[in-house]
Write a structure and sequence with these properties.
Number of strands: 6
Radius of gyration: 16 Å
Distance between the termini: 29 Å
Order of helices and strands: HEEEEHEEHH
Amino acid sequence: MTPEQFLTCYKYIVSIENSLTEKDEDICYVVVVRGMMVRGESFSVVCKDTCYIQEMKKQPLIKYNNKISGYSITLGEIIQKYVPSANPKDWIQVYDKSVTREDQIVDGIRNAFEKFENS
């Protein structure tokens, strides 16, 4: 199947990825393709224990291609090592019980789709 055929089979193609900003804030990036490509960003979350971020940055950096690289372990996995009750996929709850990873992802998706509506 060619990329063009693939794109006509689906209404939307969505990619969701979390990353640390230059200020070491966790943010969710959402890329949506539907005829055109838009990118939405969520609100940022601060990991109040910077020692976890420093430990993550000591991990091997994996270079997937010329544009994409990432660490071999997630921030949530590091936090869980020290806070065993922490869910590594929703570590935000360690610091703020009123916000979840799902809230962050939905915010990124909402911001991406607003760009479709405004274009």
